Each structure stands twice: as structure tokens, then as C-alpha cells.
Amino acid sequence: PYSISMIKLLILLTVLFGINYCLPIWTSNPFVDGIYRTLVIGILTLVSLYKLQISTEICMVIDKYLKRNIY
User: Does the structure show a pLDDT above 70 at 49?
Assistant: First the structure.
């Protein structure tokens, strides 16, 4: 039931949690800080999932979205 993709995903999640922990507190407002962290981690997650080819379904959706916006 486990594959190399699951191991990649586990490593990716560990790295992303570490990055989130290391991000500086940008503002004293917790809502703004939450939005900031969500944007940074969300973008890193999408780029990493696409580059590592962990999920073919996610890669197909991203390819479809990118092709639609290019043409």
C-alpha cells in the first residue's frame, strides 16, 4: 500500500512544517500572520507537488490550469 510517492509526501510535509516554524512573525495581528503563512506554505506546497510529481491528478489539474491561462 505504500509507495515512493508516500515517502516523498511525508518528507515534503516535514520540510513544510519546518519552514512554517522558521517563518518570522510578520505582524502582531494573528489573522494577517495566518494569511501570510498560508500563502507562503500554500504556494510552496503546490510548486513542490508539481515538481516532485507526487500525484498525477494534481499535476494534470495544474497543467490544465497553466495551459488555459497561457493560450
Answer: yes
